[in-house]
Amino acid sequence: MKSSAGTIDKGQLKGDFFNLLAFLVTSARNCVEEPKLYGPFRLIDGASRLIEILEQADIADEFLVEIRKKIDDNKYSVMGDKDEFIKFLDNLILDFVDKLKSTGG
After folding, report:
1. What is the pTM of this model?
2. N or C: which end of the chain has fewer CB within 10 A?
3. How would you classify residue 59: left for phi > 0, otherwise alpha for psi between -120 and 50, otherwise beta?
4. In a domain, 74, yes or no
């Protein structure tokens, strides 16, 4: 995503954001007919994809990288254990709350 001069490749970034937007729009449409719990899955998957774009642009901090790893490790729990998936989402929220508190946000 970054050139050898350290600047962000805007064409690549534009393509990555286009793909993310296409995913989100398609997900919105699919949520109309999919099981209710797929909506939260698609949102959390979208968050992971956004963080991945930030990583490729070398602008994601350690916190976001760790969040993406947690998402990728746990997002499929929705398929087997609804309560486990909900607990995972609750814990992610607490991670963000802790981060906000530590940065004064």
Report:
1. 0.88
2. C
3. alpha
4. yes
